[in-house]
Amino acid sequence: MCGMGKQQRVDHDSQAVFTAGYAPMSRRRKLVFVINSIGEGGAERALDTVLRAVGGRAARYEMHLVLLDDEPERRILPALDGRHCLDARGSLLKSISRLRSCLDALQPDLVVSLLVRSNLANAVAGIGRPWRTILCERMHLSSHLAGRYTGAALRTLRLLPRLLYPRADLILAVSEGVQQDLIDTFGLAPSRTRTIHNPYDLDAITRAGAEQPVIDLPERYMVAVGRMVEAKGFHDLIEAYRRADPAPSLVILGDGDQRQALDAQISAAGLTGRVLLPGFVEQPFAIMARAHCLVSASRNEGFPNAIAEAMVLGRPVLATDCPSVPAELLGGVAVRPGEVVEAKYGLLVCNRDVDGLAKGLVRMNDDALCARLGQAARRRMDDFRVAVIAARYWDTFDGVLAATR
Predict the structure, then answer these.
(1) Which of 18, 147, 219, 268 is the most exposed place for a label (fewest CB within 10 A)?
(2) 22 CB contacts (<8 Å, ≥6 apart)?
(3) Which one is the CATH code of 202-384: 3.40.50.2000, 3.30.1950.10, 3.40.50.300, 3.30.530.20?
(4) Residues with Cβ within 8 Å of residue 146, at least 6 apart in sequence
């Protein structure tokens, strides 16, 4: 169950530089990354970026990837020393038992997990074991759970992180809002939490944006990107688009459980041919780069990759002020229902505010405003260069391991 065979190690070029003041490790330390599966989400993209930024540190690690579920893979991650699929089929109990068996066989020095189920399984699997654990929380957890569960299920899932996350050595939050939510809602000690944002390879995204799109596109269009699930607010966005009736078409990239419902909404609203759902596109940057603007109607976010990547490409952004990152990323201020606020790096409207979204879409008809916001957005993303952010992840791994010697 924990042995799909070893893969040949591949070292990758990176701008990341080892800056922490730790002495060299005397042997290769075994580092295991755990994630639910390799889907199309932001956690997978961030893991890919961090792994490719290992650079010269690769010589000090033996690295393994553990996938909890046997699912189709939507991204090609770097080859590591070992790759293990547990086929837990979405079950938390199976994830815990199979991960613990896998880790007992691997005997790692450090286990790093991403996404809620992986984090819970990692926290339990490490109880009574000698290895160190780091949980990477990608979601604004309280709003994420409240948006998906109710009743006893919600109460249980709110309790589990409160009980289990403190068992980890460190919890890395993807934003300051996520970190504060872990402290305020789930009772985590501030000293056991840290914020490290997502890293972005600005040059690679820019190069990809210059390529030819892989699908046919309208002459002028807005773009939205994300899994077609309730949390992304695409129903709100389509209704706002209907009310605003802007000149550009709306292209929504992604796939998911709500695809049929969104198709039906588009047809009922008479928007067929104007709101387009081309599905998941493995390389979306060329499409984003040619868009008039990016619109996000998300109801909660950990760290919205689509917004950040559009900003790298110099695209103006209109976003809902949902927990916890859009305002943090766009430099926003307080927003009231029905109004559109021009923040430092983009436009913000209230969370779940269809009228505000519609007004924001109308505001995006102002080409001078869009040009100004696009330029500011591109400058903002210099703060998230992969060389800086990915190095913080690797420095953290080094520091936790150095403390165990």
Answers:
(1) 219
(2) 398, 399, 402
(3) 3.40.50.2000
(4) 154
Under 8 Å between Cβ of 345 and 317: yes
How is 21-85 classified by DSSP, letter by letter? -PPPPSSPEEEEEEES---SSHHHHHHHHHHHT-GGGGGGEEEEEEESS-----S-PPP-SEEEE
Q: What is the pLDDT of residue 16?
A: 30
* pTM summary value: 0.82
Q: pLDDT, tens digit, for every residue of 8-39?
A: 333 333 333 223 344 445 578 999 999 999 98
Task: Say if strands 293-296 and 275-279 run parallel, antiparallel, or are unpaired.
Answer: unpaired
Rounded CA gap, 133 and 33, in Å?
Answer: 10
Please report, for residues 77, 141, 233, 366, the alpha-carbon distance to residue 348 in angstroms, rounded to integers and kept in the order given.
34, 22, 15, 15
Mode of pairing for the β-strands spanning 341-342 and 347-350: antiparallel
Show the low-confidence residues of the chain (pLDDT under 70): 1, 3-26, 404-405
Check if 29-199+385-402 and 202-384 are the same fold: yes
Asked whether 133 and 126 are in contact (CB, 8 A), the reply is yes
Beta carbons within 10 angstroms of residue 184's beta carbon: 10
Can you name the residues that pair with 173 across neighbouring β-strands?
A: 137, 195
* Residue-range domain boundaries for the chain: 29-199+385-402, 202-384
Q: Which residues, 6 or more positions from 295, have their beta carbon under 8 angstroms from its beta carbon?
A: 222, 223, 224, 237, 250, 317, 318, 319, 357, 360, 361, 364
Phi, psi dihedrals of residue 302, rounded to the nearest 5°: -85, -65
Give the CA distances from residue 154 to residues 71, 135, 193, 297, 335, in Å, rounded to whole numbers and listed in that order. 26, 21, 23, 24, 28
CB neighbours of residue 239 within 10 Å: 18
- What's the burial of 180, exposed, middle or buried (CB within 10 Å: 0-12/13-18/19+)? middle
Q: What is the CATH number of domain 29-199+385-402?
A: 3.40.50.2000
Burial of 89: CB neighbours in 10 Å, binned 0-12, 13-18, 19+: exposed
6 CB contacts (<8 Å, ≥6 apart)? Answer: 81, 82, 83
Phi-psi region of 63 (alpha: psi -120 to 50; beta: other; left: phi over 0): beta
